[in-house]
Amino acid sequence: MSNTDITSAEMDGMGPKGTKLGLARVLGPAHIWGLGVGIVLVGEYMGWNFAVGKGGAYAALLACWFAGILYSCVAMIDSEVTSTVAAAGGQYTQAKHIVGPLMAFNVGLYLVFAYTMLEAANAITFGFLIDTVAGMTGHEGLDQRPFIILSIMFLAWLNYRGVLATLTFSLVITAFAFCAIIALFLSTAVFMSDSPLRHVELMTDLPYGWLGVLAAMHFGLWYYLGIEGTCQAAEEVRSPARALPFGTLAGIMTLLIAATLTWYVSVGLMPWEYLGQAGVPLFDAARLSGSMTLMVLLGVGTMFATLASANGCINDASRAWFAMGRDHYLPDWFGAVHPKFRTPYRSIIFLVPIALVFALGAPLDQVITFSILSGLLGYTFMPMNVILFRRKWPLDTIKRGYEHPFHPIPAIILLCLCGVTFFAVFLGYGSQLVAMLSFYIIVSLWFHFWRYRFVRRAAQFTMPWPRPRGY
Amino acid sequence: MDIWNVMEYTAWGLSIVFGLYIVIDWIKTDSTYSEEELMSSREGELEAMTEEQQL
């Protein structure tokens, strides 16, 4: 520590253990907010409304709030652990330090799968949106493939060229998409003299009872899925202890507001039977408001939200893959950093064809389901992670950037809500859930019996922490 | 050929340009720098530098 000059302009990013090229530490709290909210906000523009189809409007609201509690727990737990384990890889690195190698390998794969599948889903949606716009201008039979490929190639290029431009781009388009939702709410509920909202006529009881509420939980995740992605930027923020908790917690607050407003406006404009299967519900809501300005605003907002989500997914999946490569959990070739752009360029390149294959060859609902399931497996790991973290390193042993309140209540609530959501997913996608679990069991066996021999066991634990309590 | 056909061809073209940029720069970088330097990144730099834990 003493022989490292952290103020050196030439040696930026150089660490005490021989680092010549590190990821660039250039991000602030606003970029973290943009990354987290950017990945998620597309879920407000589309996807969440399938919860309405599962159980009616009120079921979607209950799912929105229950999922909101789930993700608030995720955000609080992540903020505490990541502000302490501030390294690329996010939850993978947390698992490596706190639980063990096999858990870390699995969590790393959950992250890469969740983000790469979500990126593919966003690219498919982007192609669909362009096709919709073409259809509105009277053009039929548009080939969506070049637009799907362009979205992935452009964002991969942006990510390859540097994290600051990438996440500034995300920040701007995410802020626009969020403001569009606020504008829709204010226009329809406050400013329009004859409000088009018809809650009294459109709201019904729970059409499928409480079972519908349970089933709605599956798509309730869409309101917030991906906020945990803020952790992946831990090695690229200037001040992890401040920026990560601030950006993540501001992000979940933003999403709670956006989710509730989205639900309120949409169910006031559309009957639940239509809303439950709409492709682009917020855009439909804007059309029903009768305002051309809102239509354009929400149309552009939908496009931006999709791109911001894909952009954040490329960023996060590549950091997780990079961190696993750097630790030799995967071939160390992936652990390279670009000398000029300071990005994990080989990991970015490697994941591009995988995203393209899924975007061009797999059905959207399957891609989304695999993304949700991988994310859910990751959330299930978090309660165990934070309980072990607090037990091994109590508050007085390690300085944290943020200490989440009421421990272990958030961990227990998160675990219970994950259990409920697994059951909800099982009701609709049981075979995919079993297939996914089988896949992770097989790769775990491969890691345990083959790959782990290549891991440098002593070198992978880098945090200057005291010995864990009880060891 | 209407504007959407032109946009389709433009999207194909831009995708190829972005892809080529990445691949060419990748090859150039790998041939210019040593593997040791490219893979010298180590985890935990900031913590070791700025945090003052009791070891």
UniProtKB/TrEMBL annotation, chain A:
Gene Ontology terms, MF aspect:
transmembrane transporter activity
Q: Which Pfam families match?
A: AA_permease_2
The entry's cellular-component GO terms read: plasma membrane
Gene3D superfamilies with a match to the protein in the record: Amino acid/polyamine transporter I
Q: Which subcellular locations apply to this protein?
A: Cell membrane
Tagged with keyword Transmembrane: yes
Q: Which UniProt keywords apply?
A: Cell membrane, Membrane, Transmembrane, Transmembrane helix
Q: How does it sit in the membrane?
A: Multi-pass membrane protein
Protein name in the entry = Amino acid permease/ SLC12A domain-containing protein
* Record organism: marine sediment metagenome
From TrEMBL, chain B:
Bilayer-crossing regions: 6-24
Query: Mind listing the UniProt keywords for this protein, alphabetically?
Result: Membrane, Transmembrane, Transmembrane helix
Q: Does the keyword Membrane apply?
A: yes
The name of this protein is Uncharacterized protein
